[in-house]
Amino acid sequence: MTMYTESLRAFLKPVLPYLDDEAVSEIMINGPTDVWIEKKGRLSRTDATFTEEGLIGAARNMAQFVGRMLTEERPRLDARLPDGSRIHVVIPPIARKGTTISIRKFFKEKLTINSLLKFGSLTPQMARLIEAGIATKLNMLVAGGTGSGKTTLLNIVSSLIPDEERILTIEDSAELQLNQTHVVAFESRPPDKFGKGGVDMGDLLHSALRLRPDRIVVGEVRGGEAFHLMQAMNTGHGGSLATTHANTPTDTLRRVESLCLMSGIELPMVAVRAQVASAINFIICCERFHDGSRKTSALSEVLPLTEKGDYRTQDIFVFTPVTKDEDDHILGYHAPTGIIPNFVAKAKAYGFADLDESFFDPATYGIPPPPVFHAGEAYTVRWAPSLKHREEGRPDPDHFKKEWSDFEEKLRQDARDAKAAPPVQVQVPASLPASVAKPATPPPAARPATATPPAGHAAARP
């Protein structure tokens, strides 16, 4: 333990039990006497208290470690602790209740696709489709709200990149943990008190394009650098990955469009939209539900703009909440929508022969088709065999309603059975086994997605 770590732990003594508790994923200090934690996805208030002097001392200690300013002129700090935890600090008078600190912890053990499968954040079929997207170098965005698990999901998706490729990462505060051999990591830097020496993400992206990247991974797109990233994606740098704040696939494209306009480059709106729709091929949405669980809520393909210049996406897999159990946990299931993505032919050429029509058919897995999802307007949609009637515009048959009702009751019964069963210890493998990575046969009917969240904020951060 370094001298700095010992000093910081001394300043944070009132919350040390929560810092050391692996089940606690975030510590929120709203002032000296108002401390909250997030544990297993739920918020609760604690009895911990600071003195005002001790709390501001801890904040300045953090700033000193990362070499950044924290003064009345610069009252905000974004940084990371030695253990990789992400912090954000706001000091008075901006923070009216006193020094405000958020400490977002991350798993010490790196999560894998298998971790998400164990948590019920996605299914093996969704993992297989994401793997195919990585192999075929689709440009992907991971989108979701605050605390939904974007960074963790990006970490896990990035782990599927082949080891022989050269990866450049660009972040505001380093959070990505890639295990590949050839990784070049960049971190932006704010200007000093004289306004000099700042290096923003746009500058780093400019450098990255001149360093022969095979992949560019951006921690979070939040400003005008989005335009330069779209340019990179459109000029041969396929397979790039990034995260952004948005709730749905279509909202993600609109969000990126807004960020592109912040670059100050004057282009017609339709030209910006065309760049965005052309650059981004695939969107992974994640969501944090009210019971604290985090799920991958949609895997969506981006389609060309409509004739009117509007965005189009089509959901390939979605998570459907169905009901709640006695403990108020969300019960639902992940399922394919029946829409066959356009990049399937290319994926098959890359060795993903199992991505046939039956792979995208909910009937293959003995589950009802999702009742709500998004399909591309005015676009020729290819449907899986059990849903061919939708190609002709015919409504779903009446037996779909009965199957849905039966499935809802099955979820409730499975949840009751799971609650009554003794707990089972699950050993998470270090890497994705071949049986999951390349399923030879369709898996059995989907189990209910219970609301057990990952044991850390980054877990199904998902």
Automatic annotation (TrEMBL):
Region (Disordered): 390-462
Compositionally biased residues, Basic and acidic residues: 390-419
CDD domains (UniProt xref): VirB11-like_ATPase
Molecular-function annotations in GO: ATP hydrolysis activity
Domain of life: Bacteria
Biased composition (Low complexity): 447-462
Residue spans crossing the bilayer: none
Pfam family, one: T2SSE
Domain named Bacterial type II secretion system protein E: residues: 13-284
SUPFAM superfamilies: P-loop containing nucleoside triphosphate hydrolases
Record InterPro entries: P-loop_NTPase (IPR027417), T2SS/T4SS_dom (IPR001482), T4SS_GSP_E_ATPase (IPR050921)
PANTHER family for this protein: TWITCHING MOTILITY PROTEIN PILT, TYPE IV PILUS RETRACTATION ATPASE PILT
Family designation: Belongs to the GSP E family.
Descriptive protein name: CpaF family protein
Origin species: Myxococcus llanfairpwllgwyngyllgogerychwyrndrobwllllantysiliogogogochensis
